[in-house]
Amino acid sequence: MKPAPFAYHRPATLDEALALLAEHGGEAKPLAGGQSLIPAMNFRLARPAVLVDLNRVAELGYVRAGRDGLQIGAMTRQRAVERSDAVRSAAPLLAEAMPFIAHPQIRNRGTVGGSLAHADPAAELPAVMLALEARFRARGPQGERWIPAGEFFTGILETALGPDELLLEVVVPKSPARTGYAFAELARRRGDYALVGVAARVTLDRRGRCQAARITLFSVGDGPVLAAAAAAMLDGQEPSPEAMRAAADAAAQRDIDPPSDIHASAAYRRRLAAVLTRRALARAVERAAQASQ
Amino acid sequence: MTATGRYMGARVRRNEDARLLTGRALFVDDVHLDGMLHVAFLRSDYAHALLRSVDVAAARRRPGVVAAYTAADLGDYWRPGPLLVPPPPIRGLVFHARTQVPLARDRVRHVGEPIAMVVAESRYVAEDALEDIVVDAEPLPVVVDLEAALAPGAPLVHDDLGSNVAAHAVQRKGDYARARAAAHVVIARRFRYDRGAAAAIENRGIVAQWDPRAEELTLWDTTQAPIPIRNGLARLLGLLESQVRVIAPFVGGGFGPKIMMFYPEEVLLPWAALRLGRPLKWIEDRRENFSATTQERGQIHDAEIAVARDGRILGVRDVFLHDTGAYDPYGLTVPINSQCTLLGPYDVPNYASEFTAVFTNKTIVTPVRGAGRQHGVFVIERLLDFAAKQLGIDRAEIRRRNLLRPDQFPHNHEIIFQDSAPLVYDSGDYAPALERARELIGYDGFVQSEQARLRAAGRHVGLGLVCYVEGTGIGPYEGARVTVEPSGQVRVATGVGTQGQGHFTAFAQIVADVLDVEVDQVHVVTGDTREFHWGTGTFASRGAVVAGSACHAAAVRVREKVLELASGLLGAPPDRLELAGGRVRVRGSSDSAIPLGELALRANPLRGAVRPGTEPGLEATAYFGPDRGSTASGVHAMLVEVDPETAQVEIQRYVVVHDCGRVINPMIVEGQIQGGVAHGIGNAFYEQLVYDEAGQLLNASLMDYLLPTATDVPAVEMAHHETPSPLNPVGVKGVGEAGAIPTGAAFAQAVEDALSDHGVEITEIPLSPNRLFELIEAARSARAR
Ligand SMILES: Cc1cc2nc3c(=O)[nH]c(=O)nc-3n(C[C@H](O)[C@H](O)[C@H](O)COP(=O)(O)OP(=O)(O)OC[C@H]3O[C@@H](n4cnc5c(N)ncnc54)[C@H](O)[C@@H]3O)c2cc1C
Predict the structure, then answer these.
(1) Within a domain: residue B10?
(2) I need a surface site. Which of B229, B399, B452, B685 has the fewest CB within 10 A?
(3) What CATH number corresponds to the domain at position B268?
(4) Which of the two residues, B590 and B94, has the higher pLDDT score?
(5) Alpha-carbon gap, residue B54 to B72, rounded angstroms
(6) Residue A79 is part of a domain; what is its CATH number?
(7) What is the mean pLDDT of chain B?
């Protein structure tokens, strides 16, 4: 379990990093926290010829609560996000999800950008960012661009990023009033990738009806899945237990087409999706109701 | 002389912990030698294939590569490994020995079987060179499933045998057919019990060095059996045993697979070190460990129990299949343990048991902590649960009614155990342990009211309560040498290897009590063939029993020498002398006392004459071999909560009441139990080796092979019962495997109990949430029909 030979660069600035990536084209890979890339290299499943280590690029590590929302630099450690007061107040859903990612030791190294760019279908952060309608800022030889979360995740371990493009930051927009959140997941052991997970955001109108619901599920497909049918069933409805149950069932039966693997069959995943979505919706609605008072 | 003293049964802090906790303990990977080269193995990707050719020419050319070998390069040195454990003398036994080879020559029989060996300046280069090797292989049909392996026309793992039967054995006691005819109820079920990898924290590792000036080969090896490795290597390499030194230093967990020998790497590294004249290191990585280190896996039992109206067992019949993997160098230890341990602590007058061991294209099966005992315990405990339900008898009560009574010991079960001796329990008193476990878990309150109260609140909580025995401490023998040094410190050397069991403390306690010295003045060395020449190894929960008893015997002899020498110096007969606090004095006198160190000095005069026949020093070597193993026992109880919607299970409490005879050090025993329970919980709920139809292990990493972590294992609540073994002077029985043995049975009962309103019946372990979900769904649709 030793990696194949590779060249290693450790630039100090973003420009240098981008130049190195441009120089080596598809041969190079950025190295963030290394918690996914290094194991893949040790198994020789990934064999980049060149590693461009971003860990010295200080300008990519920050959490800022700005006018447009919450800005998180790509190299911000997961543990820093977990402990950030700014995150807790501006994006409580994100704060609630963080402890489910791996273990503290891994969150100390693992980065927000690394997790999003890695795009594991069982990862928490992509689903949370999709639920929160986050936007991703990327830069490559062609310059800078913004990618909405809905377009960022394109498949299993695949994103809209080009090989010489770097993810620079993710921005979580401010959420509307009377909004509640909930995050739920089941994993075999604490810290494992989820068997199934759900992120839910519900906004109530002034009469307590569901004005907008946004539900994402993960570990049920090729990437985070937006449960559109489930959300549509709640639109304009009284969020009664029956309505939430019906929406949760729709999420499990219509919105997802989950895979079977050695840990969970598709049928079991559907069951977990229904139960977790129901439970998450109930909590999100309760919090939205509290936020409405 | 029996063992007594201030340290017997005391919670002595472990002598070895300072070294371990401060990182000063030597593990194999800590060995760095000048000029050392690194080894990597090309292993088969196929579960079954013909090897047409293996071309290492390109690998040899890669810069940094020093050598690359295939089977063809080994010449006469290539030969199948020894049959490590010949099968016991069971009448009518069929057994086909097929043992592993150092490098596959014309055929591979499981994924991970080594095909070629590369030696290079670094492990990195060695692994790069593995990619240069060209293997021309023709895949063959694969045998994975146990029943399919026996079907007519199944592919053959060993062509010459004509079938995949590795062994067949029948053992009988009484007349089961008569018992069945007389039964009030007969219950038959099919059970599946699958186990997994031992998954020690430290994988295997070897460093081999040939010193041409000393003409000595030194091998650092994670083995549990350094002395047999030394003996075997000397024979293989044509060296004197004294020219081979095997050191098993600190080892990060053994659990069984490290008693296997010879692993291919163990014969190849010394051979190559001799040829190349440079030291070699190979450290197994986790991926290799999943296919190259032995495992324990599945059995399928078709079992039935015949019971009387009052729940008394009249007889048990069991027919089972045992997966032995591609080779069977460890004989029949695992299935015989299953067969014998099924009888448990119960009075079973009639027993008919038959097994077939089956070759499959999978990694070799050898004992892993519990070593087949879990399978047997699972079958009998589940049968008793079903019998209790059918007869309307409380499950604790049906067990109590069947326990052997103290007056039935020694109890002869009339079948043959793994050590080739009759299965005779030495001592035991089972009913009080059952009673104590009931108390500790709060059985009566839970069954009578608490469970219903919780259920009314929508919570599904269940209780499991099961009994087990563990045959431990088998022969043949171990030895020890005890030496009092002139400093007054005591040195103990023994041949067993140590993998975290606390030998440095438990053995020291035994010796410290005999010589009445401080326990931290007793220095134990284990696992170095230079230090002690004779022995067999650490297995079958036998260290404390067999090596511990040898330490005791040697210490007793040293004590005699001490008193004899002091008698001359103090002018009083030995029986008037007293040895206390490391000094000898005449009892009742306040005169001068002689310190042990001074006696040691005097015992080794440098000038003058001694009485003919006098041995120098205060030193003695002794050996101990028990007639047969001693039988430990216990009761496990657990409370679980199940979420029937998600099939998630949470273990709320875990209680163990156990009897390993005299407890030398409760802290060490508790550690063994806690660790064993962790293994058991892994086996019951998390761990499973998942092979696909092509014989590929689908979860060969710790990401997908789920070991329970600290957050998944509750702190075990424990109580000790002591029924001393009459078979050794210390009165101990083994405890190394106890925690892991009945966990699956307890878990199944508890989960079933929690889901009693769902009508789920559990006849298999492991039980993942996914599988439990399927069982719940199946029960639901069965009810709907
Ligand atoms: C035992 C274990 C358990 C884990 N459990 C979980 C879990 O439960 N949930 C979970 O979500 N994750 C889990 N992880 C993964 C962990 O969260 C990783 O940290 C994360 O997936 C990747 O982040 P990283 O910073 O380590 O990225 P790296 O491993 O360094 O990189 C990952 C990939 O992203 C690319 N990349 C990194 N940064 C950028 C960038 N700025 N722009 C473009 N591409 C980039 C790399 O080139 C690489 O392809 C676990 C990991 C381990 C070892």
Answers:
(1) no
(2) B452
(3) 3.90.1170.50
(4) B94
(5) 9
(6) 3.30.465.10
(7) 95
In a domain, A2, yes or no: no
As a dihedral over the C-alpha atoms of residue A262, residue A265, residue A268, residue A272, rounded to 10 degrees, the angle is: 70
Q: Does B712 touch chain A (CB under 8 A)?
A: yes
The whole-number pLDDT of residue B167 equals: 98
Same-domain pairing of B96 and B205: yes
pLDDT for residue B3 is more than 80: no
**Enclosing H/E stretch for B3:** none
Residue B422 CB neighbour total at 10 angstroms: 13
For residues B632 and B659, is the Cβ–Cβ distance under 8 A? yes
pLDDT of amino acid A292: 86
ipTM of predicted assembly, 2 dp = 0.96
* pLDDT reported for residue B542: 87
User: A35, A94, A156: which to mutate for ligand 1, most atoms within 8 A of CB?
Assistant: A35
Q: What is the pLDDT of residue B1?
A: 56
Q: Among all residues of chain A, which has the CA nearest to that of B287?
A: A1
Q: Specify the pLDDT at position B364.
A: 98
Residue B8 lies in a domain: no
How far apart are alpha carbons B555 and B560 in whole angstroms? 9
User: Does the CB of A264 have a partner CB in chain B at under 8 Å?
Assistant: yes
How many structural domains are present in chain A? 3
Name the domain boundary from B268, B292, B316: B292
Cβ separation B770–A5 shorter than 8 A: no
Are both B123 and B230 inside the same structural domain? yes
Share of chain B above pLDDT 70, in %: 100
CATH at A20:
3.30.43.10
Structure tokens at A278: 């129901």
Q: Are strands B478-484 and B490-494 parallel, antiparallel or unpaired?
A: antiparallel
Residue A157's identity, in one-letter code, is L
Cis status of the peptide bond prior to B476, with omega within 30 of 0: yes
Q: Mean pLDDT across the stretch B281-303?
A: 97
- CA–centroid distance, A112 to ligand 1, in Å, is 8
Which residue range(s) make up the domain with B343?
141-196+296-416
Q: Residue A266: inside a domain, yes or no? A: yes
DSSP string, B584-614: EEETT--S--EEHHHHHHHTS-SSS---TTP
Which residue in the set B131, B698, B777 is minimally distant from A262, CB to CB?
B698
Q: What mean pLDDT comes out for the span B599-615?
A: 90
Looking at the DSSP bridge assignments, the partners of residue B478 are: B624
Residue A95 has pLDDT above 60, yes or no: yes
List of chain A residues whose C-beta atoms are within 8 Å of the C-beta of residue B124: 2-3, 5
Residues A198 and A283 in one domain: yes
pLDDT tens, B34-84?
999 999 999 999 999 999 999 999 999 999 999 999 999 999 999 999 999
CATH for B494: 3.30.365.10
pTM as predicted = 0.96
Indicate whether residue A139 lines ligand 1 (CB < 6 A): no
Domain co-membership, B519 together with B542: yes
**E strands of B644-751, at which residues?**
648-659, 717-721
Q: What is the dihedral of CA B373, B376, B382, B383, to 10 degrees?
A: -150
Which amino acid belongs to residue B598?
E
CA distances from A292 to A158, A173, A203, B462, B650 (A): 39, 19, 9, 41, 36
Cβ partners under 8 Å of residue A168, min gap 6: A14, A60, A73, A74, A113, A137, A138, A139, A144
Q: Which of B251, B273, B292 is the last residue of a domain?
A: B292
Please tell me which of the candidates B127, B768, B774 has its beta carbon nearest to residue A2.
Answer: B127
Picking from A275-289, B120-134, B413-427, which range would have the lowest pLDDT averaged per residue? B413-427
Q: Quick check: is B12 in a domain?
A: no
